[in-house]
Amino acid sequence: MSLESGSATDQQVEALSQKFTLGFTYTRSTGPVVGRFLSSLRDGKMVGVKGSDGRVIVPPVEYDPVTAEALSEFVDVADTGEVVNWCWVAEPTEHHPLSHPFAWGMVKLDGADTPILHAIDTQGDASQMATGMKVRVRWLDQAQGNIKDIVCFEPGDSSSGNVPQHDFEEPVVMMDAPTYLDYNYTAGNATARYLHQIRKGKIVGQKAPGGDFVYVPPRGSCPATGVATTEEVECADVATVESFTIVHIPIPGNPIKPPYVVANLLADGADVSFIHLLSEVDNDAVEIGMRVKAVWKPEEEWSYAMDNIRYWKPLENESDKGGK
Amino acid sequence: MQDVAIVSFVQSDCVRHAGAQNEVELIMPVVQAALKEAGLSSVQDVDFTCSGSCDYQQGAAFAFVAGVDALGAVPPIKESHVEMDAAWALYESWLKIQMGQAESALIYGFGKSSPGQLSNVLSLQLDPYYLAPLGVDTISLAAMQARSLLESGEVSEADLAEVVVNSRANAKNNPHAQLSGDFTVDQLLAEPETVSPLRKHDCCPISDGAAAMIICTVEKAKAMGKPYAVIKGIDHRIETHHVTLRDLSRSPSVEIAAEKAGVHDAPVDVAEIYAPFSHQEIIVKRALGLDDSVAINPSGGVLAGHLFMASGLSRVGEVAKRIIAGEYKRGVAHATSGPCLQQNMITVLEGM
Fold first, then answer.
1. What pLDDT, on a 0 to 100 scale, did the predictor assign at position A5?
2. A110 and A197 in a common domain
3. 8 Å CB contact of B29 and A16
4. Domain with B111 in it: what CATH number?
5. Interchain pair B59, A2: CB under 8 A
6. Please, which residues have CB within 8 angstroms of residue A143's CB and are 6 or more apart in sequence?
7. Among A312, A316, B86, B317, which residue carries the largest CB count within 10 Å?
8. Which of A181, A206, A221 is the last residue of a domain?
9. Would you say residue B302 lies in a domain?
10. Burial level of A242, CB count in 10 A (0-12/13-18/19+)?
11. pLDDT band for position A73 (50/70/90)?
12. Which chain B positions have a beta carbon within 8 Å of A9's beta carbon?
């Protein structure tokens, strides 16, 4: 049960990485149960729901966790309670609700039978934290209608007396729930080798040993056989249009103004097409089988990306293949 | 239920950064090695292929589709994917064989966690109204689970450290492990708490890598003439999505799955437990009803290397490997998913 070293990784080139943030800017509908809870938060009130066994569940859930019965009997509970579990976060991240050291706690509110999970602020002092300690809600000044209307819990036997302000009239039915995740993506070895060639102004496809297909761009294997594409094949910056579409609608985040032509291009020497732009052409004159040539950016602008080629334009003359 | 044979299992090294290896380049070597070990020449020689992975790990949409490029899927193969640990891909494949729709299957799992921040990525699996907006992370949730166990008075911090000592010591014999070595309980307890009551060593490392397995009917395994281990029972159970409504100090889902999979039908001499946090090994071991005579995590477990999305499959593979080698007779493999051991799968394995 051992691995033979993959031949693809024997061809090492400098790794290429790129940071990016992935955002999911969702808006979520709350439904009547969660909506009732979030609506109450805006008024500085905590509400739970009675479970099948009569226990008061806070925050309320739509279905009983044991019987799966739909729940609807709401019960008011206090904004004070007791810590039943906690952990100490010595080094908060930017995703956390507090920027200084704090505790996550499970707090059983007075009148509730199950705990709510939220942050507990002891001004960075871990020694104040203990199971059984009394805490109260610290409310947000201007309510938004989501769980963050509770800023956090803080030590205290009785309510703070402060309640959130708001001028909402309708109950909460929707909430913004954006999520952002940071990544530092590293290209695979085959892709990295390809991009190092693009950086030099060359389109160099790859094929598996003994394989027939030259892939541009390569992704690591010949997908038909599952064999690593260890052999490199330089292709021309002249291509044939395999298919195309004319884009008439603006695409969010895309700097190119419509209408423009996106085409599947088969570079001379390659066996699979890649997608790129066509320009310097009458859009209505584009056709499948059309011969095109790369229009490169000035060499000093070249990087490790396919947009080193600004776009492709019709090839006037088959003998006009050299030069960039 | 018919017995199903495990004829090969291969896992990559657990490394913190796989660097310039994309999903195809992570999967290809383990799939090729697993096929070879089973005496098969290509993926065309199995009836079904199923994988487990999570695209949020590396932030690459449809990486699981791109991963199919590693297989050699021409002419087209029957293929499926679970957005779960590959242990559940094994379960789907096992079902295919039970249904008579396949006689053999390739299962693989892969994970490249290094591009992202895994504990934040995993916040996405929490309740989207009450917990995800707060940025509650998996380590913090696990820390509260540890406290619930510690404050029960039945488990001490030294018990947690003992789990880590054993993991690191066992991992010395595992060439794929990321963390191994000789430590003492006192040494570990002297380390600072990171998210109290957890210390850094109580938490699994984050690893990149992949694993692959070939299973088939017992008849087919005999025809292949290869040694194999047999899946005698398999079951998985899940608890409520709301962590605050669970008793985190025990695992009712493991208890039920163990019962249904037949763990207690005969003595067990080895178990691989998927416990990304030291205290979780204690919770699962108790829920499985295993005593101290059972060898726990001879591979070192996931505290020695955590291929997120492949570690559950690896637990099955590690038990199978040892049964095939004749080191043990009857073993249990545990896989988990979700925060604080929310969902659990139990597989019972025996020799041929």
1. 36
2. no
3. no
4. 3.40.47.10
5. no
6. A41, A42, A43, A44, A149, A164, A165, A166, A168
7. B86
8. A181
9. no
10. middle
11. very high
12. 20-21, 25
